[in-house]
Each structure stands twice: as C-alpha cells, then as structure tokens.
C-alpha cells in the first residue's frame, strides 16, 4: 500500500504541466430505438450510432467538444445532459430540457458545443422524460495533459439498472391513479451488460439458478477485465442508475479512492465502496493476489431492500482463461440499511489540499429545501418545499434572458419550510401544488443550500438546526461534488458561489423522483450569457419571438 501512496507525490508536481495545444473533437451521433438484449431478455434500448451504452468520449483538458446530435426517435423529443461539465460560457449546451434548451424534435439535428475545462470521470445521459431509464447514456472521460499519478492501465466501468418494463410503461404507471411504483430493477448492468436468467456464480448460490453458459459474444455477456500480475490499474466508475444505490467491490483487492466527481481527493483505502446515482470515482488497485486465480468484481444494491441480484464480472489474471470461475463466492455487500457504514465512507472524502480553493467562510443567502412525497388531486407527486416542479413550454434560459415575464410563475419560491414540520412523521396535510418558479441568485454571491430529508434521503442526523449545525460545517477541506447524498431523516449542507451565468436544474437524480417533481431551478447572471443559438430556443414563446424577428 505504501507504494501506492507514493504515487501521490506526483500530485503536487502536476500543476506544472507540459503544454499541449487544445483541439476540437467532433462527433456525429444518431439516436434511435433498437432491439437489444442487455441481460439475456430481449428488449428495446435507446442507442447512439447503434451502440448501447453510447460511445465513450475521451478528451484532454481544454478541448472543445462538438456533438451533432440527430434525433431519430419517431415520436418524442430528445436532449443529452453532460453530467459534471461546468458549461462555463455555454449554459445552453447543458442539455436540460426546457431549462437550458428546447427538446430536439424528431428528425432534427442539434449541435452541442462546449469546452471541457477540468480533468475527471464524467458521463452523459438523456434528460427528457425517462430516457435515461431506456438506456440513453455513456461515458465522458477528460484526461489531464499529464496525469497526476502513475498507473499501468485504466478501465472504465459505467453502472446502471435495468427493467423489463419499458420506460414508457413506467411513466404511465407513475402518472396513474392509483399510483403504480416502478418496482425494483430486474438486473444491474456493468457497461450495459448483466445476466437475468442465469448467474456467473451459480455454484455458490443458495437458491436454484442456472450457471451462465456463454460464448462471449452475446450482448449480455460480461465484459471481462484482463490484468497482468503486479501492476497498478485505475478503474474509472460512474453510476447512471435510475433508482439503485450500489456498492462496488473487487474480491481480495484493496481499492484506493483518488477522485470523486472530477476532483482529486485525499486518497484512502476501502474494501468496498458505495456509489449513488450521479456520482463518479476513480480508484487505484494493485494486482497483488494469487496470479493463478481470477477474482470477482461485484455490484450490490444499497439503501433499498435488495430484490435485484448482484451484478458480476471477472477480474481475469492473464494468462488464466477468462472463463475460469473464481474459487470463492462473490463479495458480500454491507447490509442494505447499514447507513452508518455509508456515512463512514462519505465522511472519508476530503478535497486534496492545495488543488482547490477553500470555501467562503460566510454565506450571503441560505435556502432550506425539504423533499417530501405528496398528493395533488389524488395523484402521487414528489415536492420540494411543498411545490412539485413542472416545466414551462419555454426554456427558462430564453425567457429570463429575453425578459418574457409570462413564460413561468415569477413569484419567488419559498426559502424554507415550516419550523413546525416534524420530519419523523407523515405530514397532517399531504397535499402539494404544482409550480415552476425560479430561485433567482444574485451573481457572485455565496449560497448555502440545506437539503432536508423527511423520509428516505446528509451528513447530519435529524432536523437541521441553523444555530448549532452551522458550527459543524467543514470549511477547511470539504469535497467538491456534482452529486450529494442525503441519508434517511437527515440533512446535507452545500455551499457554492453563484458565478456561472445560466439557468441550472437542481434535482434528485433518482429518475422517477425527478419525473414526478422533485427539483428546483436556479438562475444566476443570465444577463451575462452570450451567443445562445436560436436553435436551442426554438419552442414556446421564444420561438414566436424569433419568427417575428425574421419578418
């Protein structure tokens, strides 16, 4: 382990990087439905250029990405969100439907153009309806001009969950009265591959299940990770799950966590690690086990009672046959409801000192957001501060920039929730209301967001107390994150400077929760946004404005 730790001596040198000129990276993608077999059961996925998951984008810091995206879906709109990319200067390319852009209509092509300004492990996914659940996702890797640490080779692992019921049917279920929950996923996928009717580890199972007999060329055959003994490998892992929180383990191998959401962190070792939807990590591991064996790589459900089998693949020590089954059962995950275990992992993540500025010591505005499950006219919805988000027909970016006041409700949304709200009990009045208001943030001010979970979602227990809990804030080395977890009946505090002009979605990354309203919208410095392409605002009231201008 000490040799691995020595790798990080490079971290304090990599700021002095050799200069490599930035380049343009151009892609032409066609998005369409295709028959596919992700887990051994025939289904339909949203594919890009005939691939599921979609193509991996690899770039170097400073590069500009051009994606010409053609919507070949026959009857629905389309957008792609580039998860974790800051979109400085290009908020219209963020890919959030009816927030930053209009959905791309069937048959149309839209150009996404943005700069990748920070190295890290990222991914992209659909952000319209429930298209992420249908398989619209892929990896986006941004490398440093000179990597911060040494390793011999790297792998990429994109995690997702899969249902045999289509995303369209799931949407109908969620919007029905009575409410029909989507249920647990049938399969966990690793790079788009899983096994439903058989198991790679059937010989170790307590339940009757067939051993997978695979040729290796099936769409659902596991991707085998081939390694040489006594080498150091980097595993980039991201979770684009629609529902499941996961736990990742590599049998017999310690994992050093070195990156979280595109930020280098103080390295620490784990035997397994939790990863929530929207998160990404890099880990380093050494192939220092018995080279005559192969080993399991496993993912297991966390935070929900697991009714979905483990996702499995094999770490194949060369020259062993890839088909050689490991000698031991797959790793056992922590108990699904052991939240103390999960908190212990989250509390180990700190930014690497010297690579990121310390957070401001004081805030200019504090917003408390309470998430709840509610009802509106008998329909089940999710709400934040008792408002269930519905999107207007005109993208916020266009209506705010061009001063179209009747495009959405311009009243200020609530900055907090009732002090008398008991987070440990169901509310006496479960009713909520629809809304599409916007939190207007003063540009360059410091904002605190306190996320309070009343039932299922944190770094604090119980109800947030601004007099006592503010003193617990870590202002020395808090992690920079794209996604944060909120544990059951707890709260999480985040602090950021509103210095990125645009309109931004802030929402739960569990697909059905967002679909049913668990989100809010932030706007900051919109007057500073320039060069918004007309194509991104070609709907709603902004479409009428552009048509009028042409005449």
TrEMBL record:
GO terms for cellular component: extracellular region; plasmodesma. The keyword Oxidoreductase applies. InterPro entries: Cu-oxidase-like_N, Cu-oxidase_2nd, Cu-oxidase_C, Cu-oxidase_fam, Cu_oxidase_Cu_BS, Cupredoxin, L-ascorbate_oxidase_pln. Residues 1-22 form the signal peptide. Its EC number is 1.10.3.3. Pfam families: Cu-oxidase, Cu-oxidase_2, Cu-oxidase_3. Keywords: Copper, Glycoprotein, Metal-binding, Oxidoreductase, Repeat, Secreted, Signal. GO terms for molecular function: copper ion binding; L-ascorbate oxidase activity. Residues 31-146, 154-318, 453-525 form the Plastocyanin-like domain. It is found in: Secreted. Its cofactor is Cu cation. Its main location: secreted. It catalyses: 4 L-ascorbate + O2 = 4 monodehydro-L-ascorbate radical + 2 H2O. It comes from the Eukaryota. The keyword Secreted applies. Belongs to the multicopper oxidase family. Dimer. NCBIfam families: ascorbase (TIGR03388). This is L-ascorbate oxidase. It comes from Solanum commersonii (Commerson's wild potato).
């Amino acid at each position: 382990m000490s040799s691995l730790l020595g790798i990080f001596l490079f971290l304090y040198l990599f700021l002095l990087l050799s200069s490599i000129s930035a380049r343009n990276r151009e892609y032409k993608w066609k998005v369409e439905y295709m028959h596919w077999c992700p887990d051994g059961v025939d289904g339909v996925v949203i594919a890009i250029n005939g691939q599921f998951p979609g193509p991996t984008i690899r770039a170097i810091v400073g590069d500009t990405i051009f994606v010409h995206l053609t919507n070949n879906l026959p009857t629905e709109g389309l957008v792609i969100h580039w998860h974790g990319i800051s979109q400085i200067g290009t908020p219209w390319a963020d890919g959030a439907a009816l927030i930053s852009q209009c959905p791309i209509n069937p048959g149309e092509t839209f150009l996404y153009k943005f700069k990748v300004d920070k190295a890290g492990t990222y991914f992209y996914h659909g952000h319209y309806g429930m298209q992420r659940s249908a398989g619209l996702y892929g990896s986006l890797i941004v490398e440093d001009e000179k990597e911060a640490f040494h390793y011999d080779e790297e792998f990429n692992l994109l995690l997702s969950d899969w249902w045999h019921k289509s995303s369209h049917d799931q949407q109908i279920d969620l919007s029905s009265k009575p409410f029909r929950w989507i249920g647990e996923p049938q399969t966990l996928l690793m790079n788009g591959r899983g096994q439903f009717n058989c198991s790679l580890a059937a010989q170790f199972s307590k339940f009757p299940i067939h051993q997978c007999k695979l040729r290796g060329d099936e769409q659902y055959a596991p991707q085998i990770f081939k390694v040489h003994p006594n080498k150091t490998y980097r595993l980039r892992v991201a979770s684009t799950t629609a529902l499941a929180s996961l736990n990742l383990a590599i049998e017999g191998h310690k994992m050093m966590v070195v990156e979280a959401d595109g930020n280098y962190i103080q390295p620490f070792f784990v035997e397994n690690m939790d990863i929530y939807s929207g998160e990404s990590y890099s880990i380093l591991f050494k192939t220092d086990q018995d080279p005559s064996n192969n080993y399991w790589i496993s993912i297991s459900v966390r935070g929900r009672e697991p009714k979905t089998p483990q996702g499995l693949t094999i770490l194949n020590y060369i020259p062993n046959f890839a088909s050689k089954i490991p000698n031991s059962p797959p790793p056992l995950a922590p108990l699904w409801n052991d939240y103390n275990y999960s908190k212990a992992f989250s509390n180990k993540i700190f930014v690497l000192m010297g690579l990121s500025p310390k957070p401001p010591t004081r805030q200019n505005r504090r917003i408390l957001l309470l998430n709840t499950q509610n009802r509106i006219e008998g329909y089940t919805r999710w709400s934040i501060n008792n408002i269930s988000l519905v999107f207007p027909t005109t993208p916020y970016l266009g209506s705010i920039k061009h001063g179209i006041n009747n495009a959405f409700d311009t009243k200020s949304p609530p900055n907090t929730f009732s002090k008398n709200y008991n987070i440990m009990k169901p509310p006496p009045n479960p009713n909520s209301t629809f809304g599409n208001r916007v939190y207007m943030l003063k540009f360059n001010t410091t904002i605190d967001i306190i996320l309070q979970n009343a039932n299922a979602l944190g770094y604090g227990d119980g109800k947030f107390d601004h007099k006592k809990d503010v003193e617990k804030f870590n202002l020395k080395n808090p992690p920079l994150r794209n996604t944060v977890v909120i544990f059951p009946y707890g709260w999480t505090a985040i602090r950021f400077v509103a210095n990125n002009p645009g309109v931004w979605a802030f929402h739960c990354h569990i697909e059905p929760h967002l679909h049913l309203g668990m989100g809010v919208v932030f706007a900051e410095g919109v007057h500073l946004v320039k060069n918004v392409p007309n194509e991104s605002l070609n709907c709603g009231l902004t479409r009428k404005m552009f048509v009028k201008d042409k005449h």
